[in-house]
Amino acid sequence: MDAPPPTASDAESAPAVRVLCVDDNPDVADSEVMLLQLTGFEARACYDGPAALAAVTEFRPAACLIDLNMPGMDGDEVAARIRALPTGREVVLVAVTAMGDDAARDRMTRAGFQLVLTKPVDPHDLLRVLDEIGWAWAGVARSDPAQHG
User: How confident is the model at residue 138 (pLDDT cuts 50, 70, 90)?
Assistant: First the structure.
């Protein structure tokens, strides 16, 4: 029987992977943060675009989960502005949206998103995606069994 894949919390020598959760619905952002913290990530929530931009510079996350439909500054603009920051070039941007058509996906790609999760997001899918980002961020090759047991 194969062992389960390692999680971000298995990398004891590596610091916790930082994830910024951006959603104008505090319940959604806070729930994502709680789930991520319970599974070994360091996570913070922001409820609007300007707060997210400040947090990217200060918190320096490896990944940002960004809701696309937010008042004031939508997720596309947040992503484009993050990409323009010197600290935002290496951040993995994950769009979290209910929109799944080709036009929306093209829009997200132009804004700088690398990944898309469709709402409602399955917690297992979220953790799988962030786990992959975490292992890449920590420099651990998942295919090398000596690295993770």
Answer: low
Separation between Cα atoms, residue 37 and residue 54, nearest integer Å: 21
Q: Is the pLDDT of residue 7 over 70?
A: no
| CATH assignment at residue 48 | 3.40.50.2300
Task: Identify whether 9 is part of a domain.
Answer: no
Query: Does a structural domain hold residue 10?
Result: no
Rounded Cα distance, 124 and 33, in Å: 14
**Backbone φ and ψ of 101, nearest 5°:** -80, 170
DSSP annotation of 92 reads: E
Structure tokens at 33: 């943060």
> Residue 139 to residues 14, 71, 89, 92: CA-CA distances in angstroms?
9, 37, 17, 15
pTM (2 decimals)?
0.81
| 143 part of a folded domain | no
Q: Regarding predicted confidence, which is higher, 146 or 49?
A: 49
Domain holding 41, by residue range, is: 15-138
Count other C-beta atoms under 10 Å from residue 19's C-beta: 28
Instruction: Please tell me the total count of domains within the chain.
Output: 1
Q: Token pair of 7, please?
A: 């999680």
Whether 147 is covered by a domain: the verdict is no
